[in-house]
Every structure is written in structure tokens, then in C-alpha cells.
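Structure ticket #2291
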Amino acid sequence: MIKLKNISQDDLVLNDLGEQLLHPNDQVELDGGRKEKAANSSQIVTLVSSEELAVIDNDDTQISDISQAIDVLKGFSQKQVYTLDNKMWIQETSRPIGTKTYFTSRGDDITNIRDVGNGEKMQIIHEIGDDDMQILFIDFNFKENKSYLHEGYITWEHANFDEICLGIVPNVTVYTSGSNTNFNLYGGYLIVPAAGDGTIQVATEDMKLVEVPISRDTGKRVTAYWDADYSTETHSFSNIRPNLTGTGQYNMFGTMVPLAKFVNKMLLLNDGFLRLQSADTEELCHGMRVVLSMTTNGEDHNWKAACTLTFHRERSV
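Resolution: structure written out below.
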């Protein structure tokens, strides 16, 4: 049975396990519904990532690798498999266990949290007289459908050294100026907590949380300043609260900034098709938007481009 062990020097209270108190070196068995609660607890994943809480596997062995510990916690076995003649069995795949491969040229309908694939088309058609730069935002329902971007395909027609870009940007939170508030704007784009001396104001209904993924390389999140509770019954957030240590699950952005660039100003000529091949995956989380843009260069002309993305998603329907 999987267990959790307090390897810190302090008492830990596991809120998502019924306020379970663990003294240093104490363990708790993840029996029954506790396993699922622990796997879905951002607090427990954060404590494992910060090496305050350890995962003990079914063989009563403490898992030292953080990424592997989180995978085991979530039910993904990392044990090596061997053939009958004792050769290591290796399967090369970018697909995280529990997901399905999914090709799409559309986003999701974000007015329906359960929708998969009925959103915006990933295509831009430029006609003479249109703006030189055209931008398209594609939204997905990531919160209740864990998704990893794998690779993509671009097809185009009548290009003349025109450019195409593909990346990730955050949903933007609207704010107003203020004084003596609980919000500040850091670096001109990141909304961070303030202790009553803030200079901007954010209404609760305007808050757009952007989830920070756990790195598959380090097993940790980068700095995040907000936490919140999410209900899969109401499909909504509540109790949005500051995390002053920067170890939260979410950020809020007051200005649109690039979070990632997958295709940067790729030059296209004539008609063509290109596979953007990759052996890796990148988890995309709630509040992230795919942005597709193309720039017409030289003398204005008609041309068009479209994109297909390969995901690994928990649900394909």
C-alpha cells in the first residue's frame, strides 16, 4: 500500500486528508478513497515537490526521485519490466500513462467544460487589404482534462516568405488602479499579493487564474502566488487566496505576455506542409491559451495557413 511519510522537521497538517496531522517521521497509509484524494491534492504534491513529504511504494521503499514519487502517487507505476530472458522491456512513447493521443485543428468550446474539439478552428486566411499581422487565440478545457502538447503540423498556400508563430499566452485578469489594496503589479504584468499597501484593485469576478504546471524535469512548480479551491461539481473556483511564499498553484496576469514559444517566425514559401516533430511533451494547464499568428511580408497578397496539434489528453471525447 502506498504511504506518505513526513520527512521534514515540522508537524504537517494534510488538509485534503481530513486535517491529518503528521509529526516528523510519521506515516499515513493511502487506503480507500485517500489515494484518490492525495493524488488530486495540490498541497500534497507541493509538499512532495519541496521534499517535506515522501512517497513510500508498495515495497515499503521510499522513492527518492521527486518526479517518480509524484507519478507513483498519481497511480503511474515506474517499475521496470523485463522479458522472460531477462532483457529490459522498453517502450518509447511521449504519452503519459492515462492519456490518449489526440490530433486536432480545433480548440474546445470553453462554454462547456466537458467539451472536446468543438472550439475555434486553427486557421488564418489573409486577403489583400487585411492587417499585415493576424492573430488567433484558441482555448481549451484543460482543468478537467489533463493535456500535454506533443507536436504539430503546418500547411500553407501561396506564401511569399511570410511568417507564422505558435505559442502559449495567459488569460488576462482585468484590474484598475487603486491605493491601499491587497494587489500589486510586478514587472508590469504579474499580479501579486500586497499587504494593504497595493496600487491596483482586482474584482473577484475578474480574476483569471493560470495554473502553473509541475515540471517533469524537477518535480516542482515555478513561483506562483495564488491558491484556490476548485469544484468539479460546479466547475468553478472559490476561496481564491494569496500564497506569500510563492509556492502556490496559480498566477494571475494583468498583461498578456508569452509563456512559451513553440514556433517562432517560421518563414513559409509557396505551398507546403511541415511536420514539427518532437520526442517531448509540454503540459498545458488551466488559463493557458494557444496563440497562432501570421505576418504577411512584402507586397500584399492572398495566402492562408492552418495548424494541426498533437496532444496527449485524458479524454478525447
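Closing remark: Residues 3-79 form one domain.
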